[in-house]
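Narrative of activities, Objective 1.

The group set out to show that a structural description can be obtained from nothing but a protein's sequence at a throughput compatible with the screening campaign. Below is one input-output pair from the validation batch, recorded exactly as produced.
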Amino acid sequence: MTTTFTLLHPGAMGARVGGEATRTGTRVLYVPTGRSPATLQRAREAGLEPAESLESALAASDFVLSVCPPHAAEDVAREVLTHPFRGVYVEANAISPDRTRRIAAACAERDVLMLDGAIVGGPPGPGSTPRLYLSGDEEQVARVARAFKDTHVAARPLNAALGAASALKMAYASYQKSARVLAAVSHALAASHGVATELALEAGALTSNILAETDQLPSVAARAWRWAPELEEIAATLRTAGLPADMAEGAAAVLRRWNDDKDRFDLPVEEVLTHLRTEG
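Output recorded for this entry:
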């Protein structure tokens, strides 16, 4: 029996994720009404099937796959829930666990089961295989995973409750997105002082994979008492150059949470991370 998805909506990521599902024989519907020419072109190229309306798409679907900008996630869910849909709603947007659970509660009020999904990585295609993490009802998670078997989307079930996949996305993106922004600020500061070429040379010599180097975190905490004042100097330098100092100021504030860990290089990673939590 063919599994049918309604994809909301075929953007740069969603269209290609939906297109991968079609490779397993999954039927993927989308609603062309009101969509831009670029969206329609993406949907056609991905092999998605147009539906006359959202109502008709939902009536034919086993799953809804929501892949939209984070700020629109709840609006998209509310729109679906105005229809008599009784399938499974897969919330695959970059949203907080709290927002995920709010959408799940709204689904439950309409007797709709929801799965928590998170896409990590770029759009699928040759040389790019994003991971689709899924948490929630194990049977339905397995059904979604089968729709992407042997495609350029690697479905990774999590044996965890709703909110786990979203939390993973938030944890990963908090580093990845912030690092890109921080790089822009760093290069802007170097350029304002005429040392852009030298910064690029130093950048090219970097060999660390900071997010993976958790064994270095106790050392960071132990030196935080010295690093925080340095970050405050960086913030002052940025302000003088007319550049945003928010990230440097924020980093200094985080480092101050490790004040009591001064020179304690032998602390376990778990304890170091615990010290970042707000008391109370």
